[in-house]
Amino acid sequence: MGYGIISASFLLVSAVALTVQVFLYSPISPDILELPSAVSSPPLYTPNNYLQAAIKLGEGILNKPEDVCVDEKGILYTATRDGWIKRLLTNGTWENWKKIHDRHTLLGLTVTRAGDVIVCDTEEGLIKVSEDGEVTALATHMNGANIRFADDVVEAADGSLYFSVASTKFGLHDWPLDLLEAKPHGQLLKYDPSTKETSLVLDGLGFANGVTISSDQEFLVVCETWKSRCLKYWLKEEMRGKVDIFIDNLPGMPDNIKLAPDGSFWIAILQVYE
Ligand SMILES: *[C@@H]1O[C@H](CO)[C@@H](O)[C@H](O)[C@H]1NC(C)=O
C-alpha cells in the first residue's frame, strides 16, 4: 500500500517532469493545421478503383522512388532513397545507371532539352548528370546558406531550372515535425544556368513539393502539401511574378505534379482525407 502511494506520486512527478521537458525541448512551435473545407462537406470526387489496375514498374528493384521522367528516346528515369538514379530501358530492363551518394536521398528529377538529368539531392541541392554520366553540383547554396531538402525540379523554355525546397527548417527525416508545426517553411527557387546563380522566387510555402510548367510556358504550378492546394506562379511577360491559386480544397495532400500530353495536369495525392 505504502509502496503504491510512493510509486503513484513518483509517476505523477515523472509525468510533470516529462511534460515540462517536452515543452522546454520541443523542436517545434506549432500553429493550427487547417484542413480544407472539403473534408467536412460531401466529397467532390467519387472514389474509384482505377489505381488497382496500375502496372507496377520496378517492384522490388527500387528503394522508395519519388519521381519519374522520360527522355527523348523513351528511357524512364527515377531516383531513390538510397542515392541511385535508375532507369528503365526501352527493352524493359532496369539499369542501375548512376549512384550519386550512398547516404543522400534523391527526390524529384527531370530531363532537360539538352539531354541532362537534373536531380534533387536532399543534402546538397541540385545535381546535374550529363548523358555520358558526368556528375556536377549545380545549385548548392543560396545567399550563402546550404540548400537542403530540394524536392522537385522543372526546366523552363529559357533553360532556367525552377525547384522546390520542401522545408528550410526541417530536413527530410524530420518532415513529420514540419507537418506538426504546420508553419510554411517551403520555398520555390530558380537556378539560372547563364549566371549560375540561385535566387528566391516564392517563400512561405506549406511544404513545397511537386513543380511543373504549363505546356504553353505561361505559368508554373507548385504544390503545397500541408495546404491541400497548388499555386500558379505566372511566367509570361505581362503577368510575371503574380501568384494565383491553381487548385485548392484537394481531397488530400498533394505530392508530385506532372504535365500530361494533352496539357492537363496529374497530381499525386499522398494522403486522402476520409
Ligand atoms: C536490354 O538492353 C540492355 C542494354 O543494351 C542489355 O544489357 C539487356 O540485356 C537488354 N535486356 C533484354 C531483356 O534484352
UniProtKB/TrEMBL annotation:
It is found in: Vacuole. This is Strictosidine synthase. GO terms for cellular component: endomembrane system; vacuole. It comes from the Eukaryota. Keywords: Glycoprotein, Signal, Vacuole. Belongs to the strictosidine synthase family. The keyword Transport does not apply. Gene3D superfamilies: TolB, C-terminal domain. The keyword Signal applies. GO terms for molecular function: hydrolase activity. Residues 1-17 form the signal peptide. Residues 154-238 form the Strictosidine synthase conserved region domain. It comes from Artemisia annua.
